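Students often ask what a holo structure prediction actually looks like on paper. The answer is less mysterious than it sounds. You provide the chain, you provide the ligand, and the output is a string of discrete structure tokens encoding the 3D arrangement of the protein together with magnesium ion.
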Amino acid sequence: MAEIIHGRFKLLRKCGSGGSGAVYQARDLRLKRLVAIKRVTVDSRSRRYLLDRLLKEAENLARVEHPNVVEVHDILDSDTSVSIIMELVRGARFLKLFQKRALPESELLGYFWQLVAALDAVHDVGLIHRDVNPRNVMVSREGVIKLTDFGLSAEVDEDEPRAGGTLGYMAPETLRRGARISYGVDIYSLGFMAYQALLGITQFKRLYASRKPRDWMRWVLSREPFKTLEELNVPVSQELSRLIAGMLEKNPDARYKKISEVRAELEALLRTLPRFGTPASDEAVSPDSLELGAQLGS
Ligand SMILES: Nc1ncnc2c1ncn2[C@@H]1O[C@H](COP(=O)(O)OP(=O)(O)OP(=O)(O)O)[C@@H](O)[C@H]1O
Ligand SMILES: [Mg+2]
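The corresponding structure tokens follow.
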């Protein structure tokens, strides 16, 4: 029989599991709706530490109110588990969209714009996400992007945030012990994700990923720049290729330092495309923009 936790949530199926616990699709028996629950089982020794950690994750998530960031409803704890109750995203991981093929520019832009808006909202409250990767980004069936997993998020000026990240997506400075990190680490990860999406995982692997983790780290830490999408003959506009190359600068001083700069350039690029029209510049995401992914995904 399905397990009921915190006297109210019936666990239906596992959506994924990771370092810290598992995420379930669950039914809220009181409000009679589906939710997502990130649940970590605890014992008397680990309880305090894990409760603090998940509390931080839920608090940080709650600080960011944005349609492209998953919404947190609550955090609940018992003697045996701690659970973050969230909005359930019905859709797929962003990764799925470019695992078997390269995402064409027109399609990528619809998602990329939402991702940039999501990151802008995160940075705007003084947080760095620190684990931007295509497993932590969901795309709803309607094509709406939802950034998830604030498990590693930290204040921008936090002295010693918990170490970690997802190796392939980590900016060079995060791989250096003791180096100061800033918003640029998320900009790099987002740029890297877009780069991978436009190449497609298969081609990306052919080009780079025969490298073992240690070799990858060494290469990321080297001065050698990523080959631009233009150089690789990927069919993308010069503007997008340059924007992504700027996000992928290995030296954080040469990279975009603010996501608002990326956003401004992206909006200039989008304005040149007739089907996007003029995106609202000061509104976080206009209702029209929420349709973009769906339109472009067709
Ligand atoms: N709100 C949600 N709605 C639907 N699915 C979700 C939601 N949040 C997370 N997931 C799914 O569960 C997976 C794991 O979630 P999350 O990344 O938050 O957990 P994690 O334990 O930190 O995992 P990892 O260590 O792999 O990053 C995600 O990759 C995603 O597929
Ligand atoms: Mg995750």
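The radius of gyration is 19 Å.
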